[in-house]
Amino acid sequence: MIPMESINISANLILLAGFSCCINGGSLSDKQVPEYTGPSFQERSPQVAVLAGGCFWGVDAVYKHVLGVLEVKSGYAGGSEKTANYESVCTGKTGHAESVRIVYDPDSISFSTLLKIFFTVVHDPTEVNRQGPDTGTQYRSAIFATTPSQKQIAESYIDQINQAGVFPKPIASQVAVLEHFYLAEDYHQNFLELHLSNPYIVIHDLPKLNHLRKRFPELYR
């Protein structure tokens, strides 16, 4: 996301005008992502999912409002420990993606349902290395599987959605095996809840919660 020190209201009003069609859940919010129909697996509670969908502030906030999710933390996946810090990741040269680690109860919510929210509400999964005003590999769409079954479900679900022609472009989400997840700095944790009036949050992230409430009322808390 735009570094906090550079965010100001006038700048973000310009961003709103220029990127209003790219706000997550905007023009894609009416797309009907089908229920997952591929192979299913028995999961013991709790389970961990790691997802990347652009700036982690909004992704974190969405999943904190999903029933069955026990904990959400923002962090970095895809790169090395040496470069797992905000300043390095912002260069887009470290291999990291801004990600969230989701601990969930599979008796209450399945991994495939987490992915349906991911494809429907969290971001535009057809964008390559960008979300809204944020560009670079650190903002790529990615599913970092923590188990072999997660990898199989993710790949199968992407194929299913592409074959259904849900989106005008193929899903660009990377599916990879998680090697490491590194927690982001404390000031990034639970950012939306602590900064509700931040212009970036108002423009780009609060709409995601509205879409979650409208599209998944039975899962919203």
Short key terms for the protein model shown above:
221 residues, alpha+beta, Peptide Methionine Sulfoxide Reductase, Chain A, six-stranded mixed sheet, globular
Give the gist of this structure.
The chain is α+β, with helices and mostly antiparallel strands. It is 33% helix and 18% strand. Helix 1 (9-19) crosses helix 7 (199-215).
Strand order of the largest sheet: 7-6-1-3-2-8
- Low-confidence segments, ≥5 residues, pLDDT <50? 4-27
Count of all domains: 1
Q: What integer is the average pLDDT?
A: 89
Q: CATH topology, what is it called? A: Peptide Methionine Sulfoxide Reductase, Chain A
Regarding CATH, which class?
A: Alpha Beta
How many individual β-strands? 8
Number of helices: 7
Q: Which series of helices and strands comes N to C? A: HEHEHEHEEEHEEHH
**Strand pairing plus helix content: what structural class?**
alpha+beta
Rg (CA only): 16 Å
Ends: how far apart?
26 Å
- Gross CATH architecture: 2-Layer Sandwich
Major sheet size, sense and barrel closure: 6 strands, mixed
The CATH superfamily is Peptide methionine sulphoxide reductase MsrA
How would you characterize the overall build of this protein?
The chain is α+β, with helices and mostly antiparallel strands. It has one domain (4-215): Peptide methionine sulphoxide reductase MsrA (Peptide Methionine Sulfoxide Reductase, Chain A), CATH 3.30.1060.10. The protein contains 7 helices and 8 strands. The chain has helices spanning 9-19, 56-64, 86-89, 111-122, 148-164, 191-194, 199-215; strands at residues 47-53, 69-77, 97-104, 130-131, 134-135, 141-145, 174-177, 181-183. A 6-stranded mixed beta sheet has the order 7-6-1-3-2-8, covered by helices on one side. A two-stranded antiparallel ribbon has the order 4-5. Helix 2 (56-64) packs across helix 4. The longest helix has 17 residues, at 148-164. The protein is globular. Residues 4-27 have low confidence and may be disordered.
